[in-house]
Amino acid sequence: MLSNKTIEIVKATAPVLEVKGKEITTNFYKSMFAAHPELLNVFNHANQQKGRQQTALANTVTAAAHYIDRLEVLVPVVKQIAHKHRSLAVKAEHYPIVGEFLLKAIKEVLGDAATEEILEAWGEAYHEIAAIFIQVEKEMYEEAERQENGWKDFKTFKIVKKAKESGNITSFYLAPVDGKKLPSFKPGQYITVRVKINGEEFLQNRQYSLSDVPNDEAFRISVKREDEQTPAGKVSNFLHEAPNGLEVEVSPPAGDFILEEDEKPVYFLAGGVGITPLLSMLKTSVTSQPNRKVTFIHAARNSDVLAFEVEVKEAIKVTKEGKSYLCYSNPTNKDLKLRNFDHEGYVDRAFLEEIVEEKDAHFYVCGPVPFLQTVVNELKQLEVKEENIHYEFFGPAMKLEEATTV
């Protein structure tokens, strides 16, 4: 238990951390990786380059400062992060290293303001918080290994099939090299795929949603080729060029962005490749609860990059009360001629007011950050309760209101 004095000191630093948080975490990662380059085999390099990992950690540290006397408030956040850690094989022995360099970063950024008393208090607080993460993750590792057909950390798989879903999305079917059956998973969960790319010193980890329902033979992930951004997506491009038979490493399924299987109506709102976890949820929902009211909304630029249109329509046919809508923000001339979509433009409040018939429903949202920001905000403006809105970032979780600054 932390002393009252330690709690007071940590809470008093919260305003400073809100201002200096990202500067501290940027310094932290730079120093830690310089001293322990082997940890670059664990972390997602793309999220580091984009600053998303630094922002996510800064948010977590600031939240810890605010709620150090009520750590139970942080349990949902801890569990979400712990899922990602377990999927990346973050271990208990990594936490002392993180603590050492986090305290060094606080001292370096805050200078004389970071007194010995403050650093000692934060050292005690970090030890307490780390113990919670380590225990939660220990239970997750044990559960992943203990489940039927489960395993620990990473296991060798191979690409047994590739299927082009659109102009920029390809599905990859991954099967265990040892020929064993797969564990089940909850719709909406993801796996970590770890690859060795020629010319890269360190292993590359990426987390991809499972885009189909569970089966014994192969996991399906559906990956967007990221060659229009800077830096280009190393792993996505590597996979798109990979031949069948290529071996990769895969972690057991993880994640807490999962389908609530109650009787409430459910709305799925997908932006681009954000359809991947929602498609798994949709196909599971209509099979297990065919009487449940389901509405699926998919937003894409146009038909050239639209994926899974047939799978969505086939799934909707299974349910007795199902509807699907297709939104194109930039339809092609062919699209305009055929009128093969339901709404032109972005998913906005006017469109949602027309489609959403029940406020007391579950809303699952996944897609690019601007899509998440817009849709979640508009749902709140429509007076949908916050606890009924479920969304997931691809990558480290951030606050929606600050995500565009990253």
TrEMBL record:
Free-text note on domains in this protein's UniProt record: Consists of two distinct domains; an N-terminal heme-containing oxygen-binding domain and a C-terminal reductase domain with binding sites for FAD and NAD(P)H.
SUPFAM superfamilies: Ferredoxin reductase-like, C-terminal NADP-linked domain, Globin-like, Riboflavin synthase domain-like
All copies of domain Globin, residue ranges: 1-138
Pfam family, one: Globin
Span list, region Reductase: 149-406
Heme listed as a keyword: yes
Membrane spanning stretches: none
Cofactor(s) recorded in Swiss-Prot or TrEMBL: heme b; FAD
Job description of the protein: Is involved in NO detoxification in an aerobic process, termed nitric oxide dioxygenase (NOD) reaction that utilizes O(2) and NAD(P)H to convert NO to nitrate, which protects the bacterium from various noxious nitrogen compounds. Therefore, plays a central role in the inducible response to nitrosative stress.
Involved in heme-bound ligand stabilization and O-O bond activation, annotated site positions: 29
Protein name: Flavohemoprotein
Residues the record lists as binding heme b: 85
Swiss-Prot/TrEMBL site (Influences the redox potential of the prosthetic heme and FAD groups) positions: 84, 392
UniProt cross-references to InterPro entries, sorted A to Z: Cbr1-like_FAD-bd_dom, FAD-bd_FR_type, FNR_nucleotide-bd, Globin, Globin-like_sf, Globin/Proto, Hmp, OxRdtase_FAD/NAD-bd
Family per similarity comment: In the C-terminal section; belongs to the flavoprotein pyridine nucleotide cytochrome reductase family. Belongs to the globin family. Two-domain flavohemoproteins subfamily.
Organism field: Halalkalibacter krulwichiae
Note on cofactor: Binds 1 heme b (iron(II)-protoporphyrin IX) group per subunit. Binds 1 FAD per subunit.
Entry GO MF terms: FAD binding; heme binding; metal ion binding; nitric oxide dioxygenase NAD(P)H activity; oxygen binding; oxygen carrier activity
Database matches in Gene3D superfamilies: Globins (1.10.490.10), Nucleotide-binding domain of ferredoxin-NADP reductase (FNR) module (3.40.50.80), Translation factors (2.40.30.10)
EC numbers for this chain: 1.14.12.17
Active site: 95 (charge relay system), 137 (charge relay system)
Occurrences of domain FAD-binding FR-type (ranges): 152-260
Keywords: Detoxification, FAD, Flavoprotein, Heme, Iron, Metal-binding, NAD, NADP, Oxidoreductase, Oxygen transport, Transport
